[in-house]
Amino acid sequence: MLTATFGESTLSKKNVYKWYKLFTEGREDVNDDARPGRPSTSTTDDNIEAVKKIVMENHRITIREVAEDVGISVGSCHAIFSGVLGMQRVAAKFVPKLLNFDQKHVVACS
Fold first, then answer.
1. Which of 31, 54, 32, 50 is nearest to 42 (CA)?
2. Could you tell me if 82 and 51 are in contact, meaning their C-beta atoms sit under 8 angstroms apart?
3. 10-residue mean pLDDT series, the chain (110 residues)
4. What is the DSSP string of 37-106?
5. Distance CA 12, CA 41 (A)
6. Separation of alpha carbons 89 and 81, rounded Å
7. Spatial separation of the C-alpha atoms in residues 27 and 107, rounded to whole Å
């Protein structure tokens, strides 16, 4: 009945029995328990603020340069950009060839 109702997002039979057993034994919390593991040391509040400060000073800086300046990996730096700060790299604007240098500069800066 669950598969017919919820389709592919249905829990497996094994997990349904597991959760049923946990709730009959008195569990009330539906969230997963904490798992042992290594905590993240690179996406700390200090590193996030440092990345944000560096990017706000220079919008044309690369992820590699930011990672080197802060002292974290490129993957962690990318995770801070996309996941925490909600930033993404945007390609340079296209400027028509018929414009002179001053007009190109005005269009590129806007």
1. 50
2. no
3. 82 88 90 78 87 85 90 90 77 51 58
4. -PPPSSS-HHHHHHHHHHHHH-TT--HHHHHHHHT--HHHHHHIIIIIS-----PPPP--TTS-HHHHHH
5. 34
6. 9
7. 61
